Predict the structure.
Amino acid sequence: MKKSTLPAVVLMLLLSAPSPQAAIFCSEPVEPFCVESDTTFEDQLGIKRCRGEVDEYVGGLEGYVECLAAQQKEIRGRGDAIKERFECRASGKAGCPQRQRSNP
């Protein structure tokens, strides 16, 4: 598997979590050190390696942004669900949605 596809695979795994209350955890990629190192630019091999690290980092940032968007959506969903439960119970209706409990 290519390294650049790794963030997308991780995101798909996180989004396919079995529990509707499963938390999504996002991890920001580490900025490549090679960009700040003078030795990187001493030869073409160093430049080529660093370019690969930079490309991987930028791809990782894209995956991170997508993960954060999914996390925001999940959090908003939790807010909507609790508001729906509250409104249902406050109106005195029977059969209101129950809180989804995650399995430890």
Summary: The mean pLDDT is 84. Residues 44-89 form one domain. Residues 44-90 form the longest helix (47 residues). Residues 41 and 64 are 28 Å apart (CA to CA).
